[in-house]
Design goal:
alpha+beta, three-stranded antiparallel beta sheet, 7 strands
């Protein structure tokens, strides 16, 4: 019985290691039930044991408990991964291939609110994604700073490269181009500092910063698209 319980742990470690986001208790139970590995109560016992032994860590959001691997869990999986049969690994890979996007969508949290002592309500909003999206500016890096499935990118270029683009591509007059560049930069910086309290190019708030003049618009887009595919397993 002890060996079977160990196998259940390895299955859950492997499952959680194959996604880039935490899974809820309900999602894990649904997977186990579909594959008919064991019953609900055994899953709960296994999860509780894994949290107690620091193989998993949890986060509770509203009424859902999310599970993710700890470093200890990753290390344990690396040692005993071969104890998981090829058939079970295939089951997990097939399940995730069919359900990964659905699991990711289910992980998002909707609006919640709480009463304030002085009266009124405090509203907390988090996006529930139906599809991927790109938000340009608007302090999105600050607004979604605690969101799990976000990649903050800052695309910039030297002033001379931007000036050249304005004059040669957008056909702006030289004096108009210079004025516009500095005016837009000033406005964007002021807006970001007012609402986010830091400059838009602050490296601590970004995962990727790239000079678009190095490879051009198309080359920059191709690199960023590849990064997004790898980051989100698309």
């Amino acid at each position: 019985m002890k060996e079977v319980h160990t196998l259940y742990k390895l299955i859950l470690l492997y499952l959680l290691n194959r996604v880039e986001f935490p899974l809820t208790n309900g999602q894990i139970c649904a997977f186990v039930a579909e594959e008919q590995y064991t019953d609900y109560f055994t899953v709960q016992e296994t999860l509780a044991d894994m949290v107690e032994t620091k193989l998993l860590e949890t986060e509770t959001v509203r009424n859902s408990t999310y599970y993710r691997l700890t470093e200890s869990g990753k290390e344990t999986l690396s040692y005993f991964k071969d104890d998981i049969s090829t058939a079970i690994r295939k089951d997990i890979e097939v399940y995730l291939k069919e359900n990964k996007m659905k699991l990711r969508d289910e992980n998002a949290v909707l609006a919640d609110y709480s009463n304030l002592e002085e009266g009124g309500f405090k509203v907390t909003l988090q996006i529930k994604e139906k599809e991927s999206c790109i938000i340009v500016g608007r302090c999105a890096d600050y607004i979604f700073r605690d969101h799990r499935n976000v990649l903050n990118i800052y695309i910039y270029a030297p002033v001379d490269a931007r000036y050249k683009n304005c004059v040669e591509v957008l056909k702006m007059k030289p004096e108009e181009a210079t004025k516009m560049i500095y005016k837009v930069d000033k406005a964007r910086t002021a807006y970001h500092k007012r609402y986010a309290k830091y400059a838009p190019g602050d490296p601590d708030s970004k995962q990727i910063m790239i000079d678009s003049s190095m490879l051009g618009v198309r080359g920059t887009a191709e690199i960023l698209a590849e990064i997004v595919r790898r980051r989100f397993g698309l």
